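Session log. Operator J.P. requested a structure for one protein chain; no other inputs attached. Running the standard single-chain path with token output.
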Amino acid sequence: MQIRLATLADASALGALMRRAITDLQRGFLSEGEIEASFDIMGLDAQLIEDGTYYVVTEHGASIGCGGWSRRATLYGGSLAAGRDARLLDPEADAARIRAMYTDPDHARRGVGRLILATTEAAARAEGFRRAELVGTLAGEPLYRACGYEVIEATTAPTRCGHAIPVRRMMKSLEAVASGRES
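Structure written below.
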């Protein structure tokens, strides 16, 4: 596996990867209607690519995972999601946002997510952020917990069609990571 910054040229392949991940990996956690409604709130955020904070994991030339972090206030959602906030965060006071993490279902549980998290956390820490925050799906929650994130709020994300998708707002100290107390 290799990880690199994503470019806008990757958008089509990443969109297809995200669609597979949302459709397949949410089964068992969400109803079919909720899975379809998830596309209202999940997907590629081109701002992350433009900011140089979004990564793609490849293997043998194929995209098998993606994810990033943000120094902007938007906590989750693709480019078309409601409630976006492009305001820049203050690393001294705010948590970096871990955003838009997806793994191709054929490569789930092989370390793709851990690689993305380690890369994004290191990049955010290098810019002075001391904490990272994310909104994870129920399917993603076990990975985030295993990587040191704690649930700070169990909530729902509303969609245009009226479904409320269950999500977990989670937080992690990046200072503990930097000092070697967590991995």
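Operator note: The radius of gyration is 15 Å.
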